[in-house]
Amino acid sequence: MSSNYKDKKVITIGVISELTGLSERKIRYYEERKLIFPERSSGGTRKYSFGDVERLIDIADKMEDGMQTFEIRRMEQKKMKNSELRDKMLRGQLNAAFNLRK
């Protein structure tokens, strides 16, 4: 089995719409606003993952709470930067603790 089934992009937009309660148009809008990133099949069909389902529900909740798409995108970018920084710090601490070199 793959490393994480939640990351496999295998679900079509129609199924995503049923799972999330969001219209296909709204899902495509979130993609246009760079909030969700489906893969495309060779025929151009959008493919989503279970992680994308969770992400779409989170986006819809934030929108319902009055947030704008640019605010959600900014929050996600900040979260990614913090995650990258945390990973660098952890690698540095491990390298120092075990006297490792790159």
Q: In summary, what is this structure?
A:
This protein folds into two domains: 1-66, Multidrug-efflux Transporter Regulator, Chain: A, Domain 2, CATH 1.10.1660; 68-102. The protein is built from four helices and three strands; from the N terminus they run E-H-H-E-E-H-H.
Notable characteristics:
Transcriptional regulator, 102 residues, mainly alpha, 4 helices, DNA binding, Multidrug-efflux Transporter Regulator, Chain: A, Domain 2, extended, 2 domains
Please give a structural write-up.
This protein has 102 residues and is mostly helical. The protein has two domains: 1-66, Multidrug-efflux Transporter Regulator, Chain: A, Domain 2 (Orthogonal Bundle), CATH 1.10.1660; 68-102. Helices cover 60% and strands 7% of the residues. It contains four helices and three strands. It has helices spanning 13-20, 24-32, 50-64, 69-97, and strands at 11-12, 39-40, 46-48. A three-stranded antiparallel sheet has the order 1-3-2. A hairpin with a 5-residue loop joins β2 and β3 (46-48). The protein is extended, with a radius of gyration of 17 Å. The two termini are 31 Å apart. The model has no long low-confidence stretch (mean pLDDT 89). Pfam families: MerR_1. Residues 10-78 form the HTH merR-type domain.
